[in-house]
TrEMBL record, chains A, B:
The lineage of its organism: Eukaryota, Viridiplantae, Streptophyta, Embryophyta, Tracheophyta. Its cofactor is pyridoxal 5'-phosphate. GO terms for molecular function: pyridoxal phosphate binding; transaminase activity. InterPro entries: Aminotransferase_I/II_large, DapL/ALD1, PyrdxlP-dep_Trfase, PyrdxlP-dep_Trfase_major, PyrdxlP-dep_Trfase_small. One of its GO terms (biological process) is systemic acquired resistance, salicylic acid mediated signaling pathway. Belongs to the class-I pyridoxal-phosphate-dependent aminotransferase family. LL-diaminopimelate aminotransferase subfamily. This is Aminotransferase class I/classII large domain-containing protein. Keywords: Aminotransferase, Pyridoxal phosphate, Transferase. The keyword Ubl conjugation does not apply. Residues 71-426 form the Aminotransferase class I/classII large domain. The keyword Transferase applies.
């Protein structure tokens, strides 16, 4: 069996630890010269760490300095690797070629997205859920929409997040001014409610313990745990929001990876239109991480306490702070939602989910407790008693594999690492072999 | 000669006036159903008008209902109309085709933009100005960067804008919470300093009258007046910022249209690196209004009052609130900065500037006082004693031409309209003829 003790070794001092990175960022080389009289934004000052993924990149960079010939396998950032279906790229090529003709040239489009794409998202992605095209706002991606939703909502709200969760919810909350001070001792911001979502509660918060947050960021299938909330769990969540007057910001960026009957949209739950906004994306659904395309659904029935429809203000945010997604990306998105395109992107998703199975099997065979990988392209691995940055560092040092330390997703991620199933098949197989070999070495 | 009196006619009551639009937006149909307990963001409540351009679109829509067969010529929103150079679209096509291959597929790129593009912007666009690639942040457009800069700076700063100016500076300031209440009587937000830039002061603010703003939004060539600030004016601006400890946010989105020796970048002015950020865009430079690509330069020497470099926080904003511009758009942008691409986009700019000449000549021949059109694709026309929304409405009613009422750019734009030189040549000529014919009718 796997000996977790190997992960409690003393860290190689050549490996830059997060605290050192922070220290360097907080104390840049002193400058001699003119200072403006503009004070640094106190919200920016409150941000505690470098954003997780750039920080992991920094570790990778240092690893390569130590081992210049290392064949690194990146199972860290969840970045798609497989070529786009040709029918999707053909549509974009046709559109781009048109831009060099009088007839095909297009300038500014509607800030909310092309009508045809809004309609396709409503009709195809949200089939039978009664979403109107005017409730769909096309964007350059879910992460960007999260910040725009924070701008919409403003600094004076109490937010709750799943713990662990995707860092952008908390970081954008700090930037907008909702978070309050960071409390080192507990690793949390004072004004943010961290709703623990561990295996003890089937990765769902104990809502009896929750206060009355005004905004609830909820990601399902969850990044990083890979858990897709069940219908019953989401019904509880919607009930909770309704009773407490909260707004749920539901991130369904990975919903296309759901293989069982868990809901793919919060709008499958009766009553959700009165309490929820949904953020989603073509990034993982269709491999558009670099092409950039996403959307947000704001139902007409969602009202502020004074009865004013949220959708009116969000429309204003999109028209003022955004200027439409790239029309080329939108042409590609529309192709993904055609019957042929939909089948093609689905086969990409199946490919990544086969990767997930391979990783789940390899990690399980080591005796590790493994979650996720069934309804999401992330595998969430438990290392009881170990610090997740130490596990991350040891795996990198000994196998040249990049993962993500669970604590990067909040204190609830400590003792875990996230392993991404995005990758080419041979890399995934090679990574599985290296992990097994590491075990073999440790055992002998 | 032209009789300005025609513009003081009583408005047709079928034309929806801005106040009516606002009233409709502020009092949406009452809703019956669940209200959340989330209060509407008070910053959003302070926004006074629908965003200018969507509001003009609404007018256009109503005009078409009244005259279903009207051949409308749109000289309103400054939207590019000419096909992109084939060498630019070829580069994008190659990139898109690559996305369907294992070798050419790309996922997430750096949030700050592809290294090659950052370098090309620094080396080609800012030739000899000493801008480093690491100071260039590629984005999806200047308007989006303006909001990100407001997020960076936070709600507690005093801002100043040119009056008239592009509405996004003020609207984003309201959304972030800097603006204070709107004072109806003067048509201004209480905490924003409106620096009058009219012909009396050669479209430059009287800085002796200015207080000590922390942020100065300054657009040159100016949208809407078309005035490119002279070197001497910009030297005064940099001096003012240095003495007062202000940060200038310099919007150079139209700099490629400058035909005389006015500076194309604030960084041509000695000392600007310690006091200025520059926002710019491929939208008007290369016809990328729909493709979406822009950039912001934050020099290393720009420091907050505590000595902390602004560039570090902006980098954090880009990594947290943005996820990189579309990699397809970036491939196109890189092509625009090749020697061949640069020549090709320059010829597009010349085309639009010939349009501007035609419009300037036509409007001048009517005896109107006309500004702009020399260093910018905007013509700024004075109608002394008239309300600009009335002028807008009469021109639309009688010639089916869309312009922009100057007051939409701030109280300093009253009595003016902005005429855009973006358009196909035959439309521009037709518009000029219609305007001359309108005069002819009025005279006879």
């Amino acid at each position: 069996m796997y000996k977790t003790s190997i992960f409690s070794y003393t860290l190689n001092t050549n490996v830059l630890q997060p605290k050192m990175v922070v220290a360097r960022l907080k104390n840049p080389s002193p400058r001699i010269g003119h200072c403006t009289k503009v004070p640094r934004n106190s919200n920016m000052e409150k941000l505690q760490h470098g954003y997780l993924f750039p920080e992991i990149e920094r570790h990778e960079h240092m690893h390569l300095q130590k081992y210049p010939h290392a064949n690194i396998i990146d199972l860290g950032i969840g970045d798609t690797t497989e070529p786009l279906p040709t029918m999707v790229t053909s549509s974009m090529v046709d559109f781009v070629l048109g831009l060099s003709t009088s007839k095909g040239y297009k300038g500014y489009g509607p800030e909310q997205g092309e009508q045809a794409l809004r309609k396709a998202i409503a009709d195809v992605y949200y089939k039978d859920l009664g979403i109107k095209p005017t409730e769909v706002f096309v964007s350059d991606g879910a992460q960007c929409d999260i910040t725009r939703l924070q701008l919409l909502m403003g600094p004076n709200l109490k937010i709750a997040v799943q713990d662990p969760s995707f860092p952008a919810y908390i970081d954008s909350s700090v930037i907008i001014g909702q978070a309050g001070d960071f409390v080192d001792k507990v690793g949390k911001y004072k004004n943010i409610e961290y709703m623990k979502c561990g295996p003890q509660t089937n990765f769902f918060p104990d809502l009896h313990k929750a206060s009355r947050p005004e905004l609830i960021f909820f990601c399902s299938p969850n990044n990083p745990t890979g858990h897709a909330a069940t219908r019953k769990q989401l019904e509880q969540l919607v009930d909770f929001a309704k009773v407490n007057g909260s707004i749920i910001i539901f991130d369904s960026a990975y919903s296309a990876y759901i293989t069982d009957d868990s809901p793919k949209s919060i709008f499958e739950i009766p009553g959700a239109r009165e309490v929820a906004i949904e953020v989603s994306s073509f990034s993982k659904f269709a491999g558009f991480t670099g092409v950039r395309l996403g959307w947000t659904v704001v139902p007409e029935e969602l009202l502020y306490s004074n009865g004013f429809p949220v959708v009116h203000d969000f429309n204003r945010i999109m028209c003022t702070c955004f200027n439409g997604a790239s029309n080329i990306a939108q042409a590609g998105g529309l192709a993904c939602l055609s019957p042929e395109g939909f089948r093609a992107v689905k086969s990409l998703i199946n490919y990544y989910m086969e990767n997930a199975s391979i990783l789940v099997n390899a990690l399980s065979s080591l005796g590790l407790t493994v979650y996720g990988g069934k309804n999401a392209p992330y595998v969430w691995v438990h290392f009881p008693g170990s610090k997740s940055w130490n596990v991350f560092a040891e795996i990198l040092e000994k196998t040249h594999i990049i993962t993500v330390p669970g604590s990067g997703f909040g204190p609830g991620g400590e003792e875990y690492i996230r392993v991404s199933a995005f990758g080419q098949r041979d890399s995934i197989i090679e990574a599985s072999e290296r992990l097994k070999y590491l075990l073999y070495q440790e055992e002998n």
